[in-house]
Structure formats: structure tokens, C-alpha cells
Write a structure and sequence with these properties.
about 110 residues; 2 helices; globular; iron; metal ion binding; Adrenodoxin-like
Length: about 110
Amino acid sequence: MVKFTVEDQDGNRQEVEAPTDMGFSLMEILKASEYPILATCGGMALCATCHIEILEGPDELGEATDIELDQLENLPEYFPTSRLSCQIRVSDMLEGAVLKLRGEDVI
């Protein structure tokens, strides 16, 4: 299991715990935790409605792919640590990370 913190649009933070051995994406965990993630494209990196900003821990999570960057760069608000949660696999690298939900910005 891995623990990370999610900050919602109101600035409220909550710790989330997720299994690392089931191949889930971060988007799937956020949806299962009832966060308002639309994920309109179903995790194919085509809609950017699962946009998050990594506040702590970005170095360990790897670089965004070109497909992911193409979606992020079209958003009204794009940050150097923006990612699509559908493109991040839940792993030990998420331990202690702090993520801010940004997907509602594109609704």
C-alpha cells in the first residue's frame, strides 16, 4: 500500500491509501475515492479532465509523455508540475506525494 495526500479545489487535504500491486492508475484511485474526476476519455490521455498538479514529489513520478504534454498544453491553466492522473501508475513512487486536483478547471 502507498499513502499520498490529495488537495481539492477548496484547499482541503486528505490522505489517500492505495494498493500498489493491482496496476491501477492514479485516476482510477481518485475516482474510487469519490473525487470529482470526470475522466471523459476513460484514461486514454485524450481529454485532460483528470488534470492534477503535483505539489510535492514530482521528481520521483517521471516525465510526462508527449501525448500527455499535448493535452496539458491546451489547458487554460497549465503548471510545470501538471500531469494527467490517468498516466500515472500507482506505485511506491507516490508515497508521501501531495497532489492538487485541477481537472475541474476544464469543465
